[in-house]
Amino acid sequence: DQQVKQNSPSLSVQEGRISILNCDYTNSMFDYFLWYKKYPAEGPTFLISISSIKDKNEDGRFTVFLNKSAKHLSLHIVPSQPGDSAVYFCAASATSGTYKYIFGTGTRLKVLA
Amino acid sequence: DTGVSQNPRHKITKRGQNVTFRCDPISEHNRLYWYRQTLGQGPEFLTYFQNEAQLEKSRLLSDRFSAERPKGSFSTLEIQRTEQGDSAMYLCASNYGTGGQFFGPGTRLTVL
After folding, report:
1. What is the band of B60 on the pLDDT scale with cuts at 50, 70, 90?
2. Average per-residue pLDDT for chain A
3. In chain B, positions 18-47, which contact chain A (CB-CB < 8 Å)?
4. Among candidates A4, A42, A46 on the partner chain, residue whose Cβ is nearest the Cβ of B101
5. What is the C-alpha separation between B6 and B56, in angstroms, rounded?
6. Within the 51-70 window of chain B, which residues sit less than 8 Å (CB to CB) from chain A?
7. pLDDT single digits (tens) A43-80
């Protein structure tokens, strides 16, 4: 029962261009969403989050968009840099009942110099 | 270093042995989480604590797994009678409130 899905296992983007990573969820109780970045041999690092009361949240080069009706969120990285090459995970939580986070399977981003 | 630490970083054991991992969260964080991650998958939720109380445990977690967080500080995760299917990266994370979690570097378990 994969409640959080990242259907693209990998993505390659040229340096300076936009990277768009997608995530879909099935549980309508989810109301808080997060993106993490993971380098090899390290734990995931929190990047940005969004509450379901918003449809957009920005932090520097990172913007997360939430489309509740489609149960879809995306992470935009502009401009992409070689150091952004990593595995990106989206995660979701239903904060009213629990603080458990459900993660997607990840998308490996490669930014080409 | 005030981040989340985990020990050991690597553990190799024989099938049937018991293993215990330790996690030291960021000191002011009241929630502590354990996850398991296998190749090509995202972190899979195992259990979490709020202070010393274990509030939720995954249905996927067998009775061979137990976790504690005495006094609401560090936590231990014990796996009894290990099986080859337990081989994975075990991640610990902590946070305060509903914000993003801070992860440790993980403990990689190999069961021979």
Report:
1. confident
2. 94
3. 31, 33, 35, 40-45
4. A46
5. 21
6. 55-56
7. 999 999 999 999 999 999 999 999 999 999 999 999 99
